[in-house]
Design brief:
The protein is of the alpha/beta class. It has two domains: 185 residues, Rossmann fold (3-Layer(aba) Sandwich); 135 residues, Inorganic pyrophosphatase (Inorganic Pyrophosphatase, Alpha-Beta Complex). The chain contains twelve helices and twelve strands. The strands form two sheets. Strands 6, 7, 8, 9, 10, 11 and 12 form a seven-stranded mixed β-sheet that branches. The radius of gyration is 24 Å and the shape is elongated. The two termini are 22 Å apart.
């Protein structure tokens, strides 16, 4: 199908790549194709036991005889026969597979990598799933890791990803991160949750176009592990309400609420509507009433509260224009870097050979 979108998933054993693929497929109602299944099918055809060592040997032989993208070419053929608008491909492992997918699908291809910070976490997950192919000891786990890196080049494949999803915590957090990925892929806005109370934002609330909160934004918050992977939020004070969404307006930046949401930098810029007859005089946070700032603080400290669960939001400080402009610049630079890398990866692989 000419317009088919392909979301591919890469990750080490125990990272949760299959969980990601299955959740994506369920949410987007798309078929899933597994490169691991392609290898296992060959083992079954040849009457070979599907141990990890045997599957590695089949991969090694197929790479040598038919190229390091042999399995993904087989999967592409199956996927295109499915006549779906989008498909998920799980278990991408070699750089050659990524290059083949990018060359075939161009900007309709996206590679998501799953990262787990501590290898011990992955080892413990493998032990819990009780698959006879998985290692029994940490030493065996480390040996398998080295063998897979030598055979597939997983680190390089991971570095080619368009975006990364961390899977260090509970399954519900991982699912929430996957849902954010779906929003980026489809371009739709997702209803995250209904407000627990009747409170409404005390100002206009939206995002700054062409911004992305990643490494540079996180570095401006002492305890943030990363940016939240979303556009930069902004609250715009105006005399009159705007009763619909999907509008663009000009705002003057005057301050920032520095927030950390479950270790993610999630800052909220404060601005005033440009040319507003009541508020356009404001140049810094001190120019607007403190009670309005406190309303904003209260809203963001409570708007994600869930029943019987502690708040994830930690408001660290409220600062003026200089700090706010530094956050805006960092988010703009993160955006440029993020999309520059995607463009470079796409351009570098369009003409590459497997």
């Amino acid at each position: 199908m000419a317009g088919m979108r392909v979301i591919a998933v890469t990750g080490s054993n125990g990272s949760g790549k299959d969980v990601l693929a299955e959740h994506l497929a369920r949410r987007c109602d798309t078929p899933v194709f597994s490169l691991g299944d392609a290898v296992r099918e060959i083992a079954e055809e040849e009457g070979v036991d599907r141990t990890r060592e045997n599957l590695h040997e089949i991969s090694r032989q197929c790479f040598a005889e038919r190229g390091r993208d042999v399995f993904v070419r087989r999967i592409i053929e199956q996927a295109e026969q499915a006549q779906a608008n989008a498909v998920v491909i799980s278990g991408v492992r070699t750089p050659a597979e990524v290059r083949t997918l990018r060359r075939r699908f161009g900007r309709r291809f996206l590679l998501a990598a799953v990262r787990v910070s501590d290898p011990q976490t992955r080892f413990e997950r493998l032990r819990r799933r009780n698959d006879p192919r998985d290692p029994d000891t940490r030493e065996e786990f480390d040996r398998q890791e080295r063998a897979e890196e030598e055979l597939f080049g997983l680190r390089q494949t991971h570095d080619m990803a368009d975006l990364e999803i961390r899977n260090d915590g509970p399954l519900e957090d991982f699912h929430r991160a996957i849902d954010r990925l779906i929003d980026k892929v489809t371009g739709y806005m997702r209803v995250d949750r209904p407000q627990r109370t009747s409170s409404l934002p005390p100002s206009l609330y939206g995002f700054v176009p062409r911004t992305y909160c990643a490494e540079r934004v996180a570095k401006l918050s002492d305890d943030a592990e990363r940016g939240d992977g979303d556009p930069l939020d902004i609250c715009v004070v105006s005399e009159r309400p705007v009763s619909r969404s999907e509008v663009i307006l000009n705002a003057k930046v005057i301050g920032v609420i520095q927030c950390i949401d479950d270790e993610d930098a999630d800052d909220k810029i404060i601005g005033v509507l440009e040319n507003d007859p009541f508020w356009s005089y404001a140049e810094d946070l001190s120019d607007i009433p403190d009670v309005l700032v406190q309303r904003l603080r209260h809203y963001f400290s409570t708007y994600k509260n869930l029943p019987r669960k502690p708040s994830r939001m930690d408001i660290r400080q409220i600062a003026g224009r200089d700090r706010a402009m530094a956050v805006v610049k960092a988010a703009m630079d993160d955006y440029q870097e993020y999309y520059r890398l995607i463009d470079e990866r796409t351009a570098a692989t369009t003409e590459a050979r497997p």
